[in-house]
Amino acid sequence: MKIVEACLLLQIKPHERFDIPLLKKKYKKACLLHHPDKKGNDTEFIRVKEAYAFLLTRPEDEFMDTIEEKRWRLYAYWLSRLENPLLHQYVIQPIQRHLSSYKTYVLEPTLENMLRKDVYYLEEEQLYIPLWHQELTFYKKIRVILNPKLGKAILDEENNLYVAIEPTDTCLRFGDISILITEEDKKRGRILQQGIPRLSEKIYDVEHLADIIIQV
User: Fold this and answer.
1) Among 40, 105, 177, 191, which is least packed by CB within 10 angstroms?
2) Domain segments of the chain: what residues?
3) Where are the annotated coiled coils located (predicted)?
4) pLDDT (tens digit, 9 = 90+) per residue, 62-113?
5) Model pTM?
């Protein structure tokens, strides 16, 4: 379970200061709302209990800062479509204030950096930044945006790489990295699991690699 999902289940808003008393209060309210005796369905009730157990393990002083910024932006966006002045004042504006408090860095890794699974040391903040991500936030209210230098290549949301090749090409070259193209790859239009690491909540995980989509 993810933080935002758990917060939504317990109706914990981004502007509310997270602590154990608040969590217990929200949990009790959610249990009353979704109790099987009331609704005849225990699925949501079980999810509420799981959300409570999950959030109970979160450090109070790191709770807000560990939430993925893009998810809060999405949350605020969908709420804003309801055109409710109270939602705007008490939910959307606090989210926007929270996000604007982040210190932002912008990095521009090359495709070679990403394929090599390079990690950049941000000395000023003493943080290690995996360069194959698109955007990261850290507990010290630090936001890192990664704008890769892709040349003519295209990167999708799952980190699959799209490149154009000639019919006679037998390999792809990115700096000192060479990736073999087989005839089977050309027929399939895809080099399987030899690309950039797939995005994961474990931000340093490089076990699963994305594909390279080849367009002849």
Assistant:
1) 40
2) 3-100, 103-146, 154-215
3) none
4) 455 444 555 566 566 656 656 666 666 766 677 667 667 778 899 999 999 9
5) 0.58
Q: Please tell me the total number of residues recorded for the chain in this structure.
A: 216
Q: Position 190: which residue type?
A: R
